[in-house]
Structures are given as structure tokens and as C-alpha cells.
Specification:
With 188 residues, this protein is an alpha/beta fold. 57% of the residues lie in helices and 14% in strands. It is globular.
Length: 188
Amino acid sequence: MLNIVLFGPPGAGKGTQSAMLVEKYMLNHLSTGDLLRGEIAAGTALGLEAKKLMDQGVLVPDEIVIGMIRSKLDQNPDAKGFIFDGFPRTVAQAEALDNLLTEKSTGITCMLALEVNEAELVKRLLHRGKDSGRSDDQDESIIANRIREYNAKTAPLANYYAAQNKFKGINGIGEIDAIFNSLCEAIG
Ligand code: B4P
């Protein structure tokens, strides 16, 4: 199985590139951000709890997102592989993902990390916020909080995957197609 963690700060292009990678490699796309927004749209209790946190730019508790990923893996036993977009975001999530995949006799193939500086991230997210309707994209202080959460809790995951020789850094600035080509080269 080809199991890719697409990694990067908020606005690095994970969702954008995932859509293209899914099509080329025929993988299942698992975005915890999309799954949480689905729960919010459906008005579930989980969605209501998640919305409060997402609107402040802070991470949702590990057990919620790990549970969502577990059920998606169980629902897709015949998948050729998965793109994990925006998951894992903490070391506890990465450890849980390794355990879930080991139970299914598979594992992470590589982590592809999109590298983008903070000024560019803020510019992209504010731009998207104009028409996405996403409340977490509208306000610069919420965006700053998301980046702070990323630096404190998510960035250390680069070391987690580097220790397994699975980390590959990719320049995330430039034309979307050129970045896509770099990702495909890294997948090999
Ligand atoms: P996500 O939905 O994962 O949102 P994101 O980090 O903003 O990335 P996204 O994939 O949407 O944006 P992209 O970079 O593609 O998370 C939202 C919130 O959900 C989190 O803050 C957290 O609260 C919660 N959450 C999600 N997963 C969680 C987890 N595992 N644990 C705990 N909490 C979790 O694109 C951004 C913009 O840039 C787009 O407008 C795009 O068009 C543009 N863009 C892309 N590539 C570009 C390029 N090359 N040049 C110019 N613009 C580009």
C-alpha cells in the first residue's frame, strides 16, 4: 500500500495537492479538517464541540480525530492506499496512526512536508477567507493562533518521521503544478 502523510502548516497547500495526488495515484483522501467540517455541517455533537475549538484556531482533542481516522480505515479495507491530509498533527496522533496501520499489516510510506514561510501562509489564508466562508480563515489573530499551534505541537512530527527515514521536505512556494511535480518525484 502507498500511505502518504502530507504535512505542512495551515495554508501550505495540503488540501490543494491532495486532490491532485489522489487522482494520479488512486488513493483514498483522509482530511481530518474536511471530516470535522462535515460534522459541523451535519450539526452533530462532535461537530459543535469541534467548531468552538476550530474557531479559536486550536487543535481538536486527539481522541476525536484518531476515532474518525480509525473508522475511515475500517470502512475502506480494499483501499490501494491513503493520503493523510492534516493528520497526524501531534506525536500522540502519529503513534496512534502507526498502531492502526500495523494492525492492518501496513505502515506509512513517507511524509511529504510542504515548506512555506509564515508571511505567505497568512496571505493565502486571508485570500481564501474572502470566499471560502471558513470562519478560521477570516481573522489574522486566529490564523496566527493556528500557526502557533502548528509550531508548538505539529512541527515536532518532522523529527518523528525523520527518525524513521520517512521525512521528505518539499518547497511549497511557486506554481501549483510545479509543486505537484516535486511531490510526484519524491514519491518516485
Ligand atoms: P485543515 O482543514 O487541515 O486546514 P488547513 O491546515 O488550513 O489546510 P488546508 O489543507 O485547508 O489548506 P491548503 O493548505 O490546501 O484544518 C482546519 C482546523 O481543523 C485546524 O486548525 C484544527 O482546529 C482542526 N483539525 C484538523 N485536523 C486536525 C487534527 N488532526 N488534530 C486536531 N485538530 C485538527 O490551502 C490554503 C490556501 O492556499 C488555499 O486557498 C489554496 O488555494 C492556496 N494555495 C495552495 N497552494 C498554493 C500555491 N502553490 N500558491 C498559492 N496559493 C496556494
